[in-house]
Prior knowledge:
Layout: E1 2-11, E2 23-32, H1 36-54, H2 64-68, H3 81-97, E3 101-108, H4 119-135, E4 139-145, H5 150-162, E5 165-167, E6 173-175, E7 186-187, H6 194-214, H7 221-224, H8 229-241, E8 257-259
Parallel strand pairs: 1-4, 3-8, 4-7
Antiparallel strand pairs: 1-2, 2-3, 5-6
Helix pairs in contact: 1-3, 3-8, 4-5, 6-8
Amino acid sequence: METQIVYCDETGDDGLNTSSSDTFILTSIYMPSSCWQNNYNAVKNFRMQLKREYGFHVGQEMHTKHFLTDKNPYRIYKWTSDQKIEILKKFTLMIASLQISVVNVIIDKTKIMITDYHVLENALTYNIQRIENDSHGDWNFLLITDKGRIAPMRKTARAIRAYNPIQSQFGGYINKPIKNMIEDVLEKDSKESYFIQICDFVSYFVHLYYMTKYEGKPLPNRVGNLITKEFVGSVMATFSKNGILNEKASHEKYGLVIYPKK
């Protein structure tokens, strides 16, 4: 049985308080282990290209929110707005060219009606469920995440191996334990992983898409100084056109998994 490698990263605060963020997005990308080296080579070559064209250091982490809001360490490069937009377009096309699948889970904290809702744990459960469904039992998978939230993520992954209630079409729930996830959730510093940085890129653009398309809000001021809502839409459309989004994950456009349900 082949193993797929899953990387995940998030945008937003996983606390119930909405003062820092209205949403929490957990993005997972996954790929067959046999594709890992080709994907890595593609990303590494792309980063070397950015070094030649823009001086963007190969080992410099791409943190999308900070890039868009002109925070350090990106300010030292003194890129023009046009150059930054070119970099974003090239990042989008590079990601869309990889042999990966992507699941995006959005927890809309403004719709949570109970006080003991576990944002991170639910987001991870919904991610793992979609990946398990996509496997159809034909492959297993190993999950790697950024540092910082490993304890609750490991606890959640262990729990749903034993108890994973799924709503039955006949009413009520049935227990469908996760069978194809191997090992505990592992952690790796995003600075050391191009693939976690790709999760960060996708996750932040999903956040911007949800904000503008679902909530009808404008882009954050500093983000809106660089890109438009149309640019955000074109990023999502490019991912979709190139087939990297798991659009079977939900009935929403681009397969966005949105909870709580209305």
